[in-house]
Amino acid sequence: MPYLHRAFPAGTNRGTVDRKIGDLHGLRNRAAHWEPLLAAPLTRRMGDLVWVAGLLSSELAAFVQHHSEVAVLLAKRP
What is the pLDDT of residue 5? Predict the structure, then answer.
């Protein structure tokens, strides 16, 4: 915990980061327990993931965006 403040750029709002990570954790739990995700805001969660990754490293955010298939799969969603 004493090093967590160094993981994010200075001035990062901890509440915003905590909320987005909490939302991502909630989505992960729903998927892990085979709960329906049809009404889940998947586009928003993907944006949250890229945003948090970008706080850690711009290269990480670019990697996630480049290798993610979420947008393609959401475009095929009924």
Answer: 76
